[in-house]
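From the pipeline queue, job 12 of 40. The input is one protein chain; the requested action is below.

Action: predict structure.
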Amino acid sequence: MTLRWFGPGYDPVTLEKIRQIPGIFGVITSLYGKQPGETWEKEELLAIKKQVEDNGLVIAGIESVNVHDAIKTGNAERDMYIEKYINTLKTVSQAGINLVCYNFMAVFDWTRSDLAKVRPDGAAVMSYDHKIIGQISPDNMISSMFEKANDHLLPGWEPQRMAKIKELFTMYQDIDEESLFANLEYFLKAIMPACEKYGIKMAMHPDDPGWPVFGLPRIMKNKNDLMRLVNAVDNHYNGVTLCSGSLGTNPDNDIPGIIRALKGRIHFAHIRNVKHNGPGDFEESAHLSSDGSLDMYAIMKALYETGFGGPLRPDHGRSIWGEVSVPGYGLYDRAIGLSYLCGLLEAIGKNNECN
């Protein structure tokens, strides 16, 4: 069990507080000041690692080493940026870390129409309504997101990159799902020798939400997409981040079935719940099964029964008890969620022993 931690200067949740969560093992972190395509320095990563270990925790994985748009669009600079990416993988390995979560989403890392929708109990959650998104421009959505973030970090929404939104849309104007997947396959085949050499597991994060937004292609939406990924580059180091929340945006996705189909290729797990309000309309919820639309017991049982042994973390939490934090990443509700997931896992394990 781990918790995402954004590091000093970015995360108001301290390691001292994280360490007090029952069942916690380590954190998932990154060098959040780095831009996509920038090579990481070993000294910077080792400094973060020392802080984590001084607080009795470990860095269980990196989330994320973001992929440059030149790689995603397959332009003339992609080989240069792939080489930079490989150099960063070497740095990650030298710091004793063997897991990298990443995504291959076009332009936007993730999309929400509201970062603080107030629920009937007074908790605030991130939500998405496709009708709202369809009525605004990308520029307006970006302005709204940054305004509602209250100067907090929005992971995957680098202000320097979002400032070039028109340029980014131009870069992707001729990219469809097939060409985007071909560029992903090219990238993975190029980095796999380094992953084998350095022992780095690459864990692809599904698209969030699991459908096209502003007409941009999405290629990691469901079981078929994820199976295509692992079969296209059939290497143990090419795997998946099982994110129940992202896959759960589409009620047609059978998440326990996806877990079983990907047995042995899930390197990392994000476990959270979502509540479906209608087609293209969902809100995030407490991790408890009854608070959303997903069967969290069935999801955890599938992970247990398939022998998943990688890092697992509760994902986005509600904003509760007046806490001010990075949207979705407050301490209180994620700590509750982690404890709930630990309880499910203990019950599943003991029930398995009895049977």
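Job complete. The chain has one domain: 2-354.
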